[in-house]
Amino acid sequence: MSQGVELLLIDTPPHASQEAAEAARVADLVLIPVRPHLFDIETLKTVRDLLKLAGGPPSLVVINQAPVQGSAAQQTAAAIRNMGFTVAPTVLHQRAAHMHATNIGQGPTEFDPSGKAAAEVIQLYKFTRNLIDKLKKEADHGQAEPTRARA
Questions:
Q1: pLDDT value of position 140
Q2: pLDDT bracket for residue 72 (50, 70, 90)
Q3: How far apart are CA 118 and CA 110, in angstroms?
Q4: Would you kindly state where each structural domain of the chain is located, as residue ranges?
Q5: Strand 92-93 to 30-34 pairing
Q6: Of 140, 129, 100, which is closest to residue 116 (Cα–Cα)?
Q7: CA 85 to CA 79: how far, in whole Å?
Q8: CB-based contact 94:116 (threshold 8 Å)
Q9: Are 37 and 44 in contact (CB under 8 A)?
Q10: Which of 9, 16, 51, 125 could serve as 149's disulfide partner, Cβ 3.0–4.6 Å?
Q11: What pTM was estimated for this model as a whole?
């Protein structure tokens, strides 16, 4: 923990930019949200280049706005893994709670704390926090370099 900051999230524009590269360079973990849509998946080629320029920080693709039914999330995950990226085990589905919550300035955990959308967000949060803690421990103990984005 530095200067009392335990967790800092930086949200950059969804395109390759100097700001995104700088944020990735200093990040403990880069989360890359991708919808199960061909256009989003194809942007990962540019993201891969950006991550290389940033020194290859640890990264994790999060499938976002996936349909609740069907196999789009699984197919998207397979395609992303084939590109050499690591995919988060939690999928954020397209649920009404996300829309309703943002309409009133809330997140799904505030809008409906016991709902499915909230559960997915909490599960993703816990996974990423545990991963960040693991990466930091490895770095602090001089162990092998953390997993980097493969390209």
A1: 82
A2: very high
A3: 8
A4: 21-138
A5: unpaired
A6: 100
A7: 9
A8: no
A9: no
A10: 51
A11: 0.85
